[in-house]
Amino acid sequence: DTEVTQTPKxxxxxxxxxxxxxxxxxxxxxxxxxxxxxxxxxxxxxxVYSYEKLSINESVPSRFSPECPNSSLLNLHLHALQPExxxxxxxxxxQALRGGVGNTIxxxxxxxxxxx
Amino acid sequence: xxxxxQSPQSLIVQKGGxxxxxxxxxxxxxxxxxxxxxxxxxxxxxxxxxxxxxxxxKEGRFTISFNKSAKQFSLHIMDSQPGDSATYFCAASxxxxxxxxxxxxxxxxxxxxxP
Lengths: 116, 115
What we know:
Strand content of chain B: over 45%
Largest sheet of chain B: 6 strands, mixed
Largest interface: A-B, 31 and 28 residues
Strand content of chain A: over 45%
Radius of gyration of chain A: 13 Å
Radius of gyration of chain B: 14 Å
Structural class of chain A: mainly beta
Distance between the termini of chain A: 31 Å
Number of strands of chain A: 13
Number of helices of chain B: 0
Number of strands of chain B: 11
Oligomer: heterodimer
């Protein structure tokens, strides 16, 4: 079983709603990630946090806002989303090494988001 | 140069067969090559991974073969079972600072193992 826990598992939201996805890991990892996955496609990287600081933003629209309150938690705040943002949102974590992030990345089960 | 090309897109084998999934890359800075298994409705699960200083790695029925000079690597599943039916993604990453968080995925292979 994955040690990266994501909530909620399913979320349906309107285009004017504000909601958040939450992720928690207790493996002592210092790098955490958000990925987006569409059906029958590979995961696409959105954000990387290393030591609670945003390290990589893959030019994600501002309607997605990440937050890393501490080394175990990662949130993704959602606002004014579009129907095409409907996807599986995956949280992941890895050890953070000096000078960069570790390579072994562990994924959570994901949050299925539907925007109506 | 950041791409990882994966083939085939889909694969059907009989139980007990040995499906082989191939991946190729261009970026010589890649130094870590994991394979992920994903069942419908679930997140990707790390299956097995290899670094370029070894040519083969086995874990149970899963084997990665790595050819550094050809910049290719492949996954073999021995004695495949219907429970192995899933989508398999190869990936690559580098420990170069500010790039280490990026897993570059192949496009995925949908494997179906028939009873």
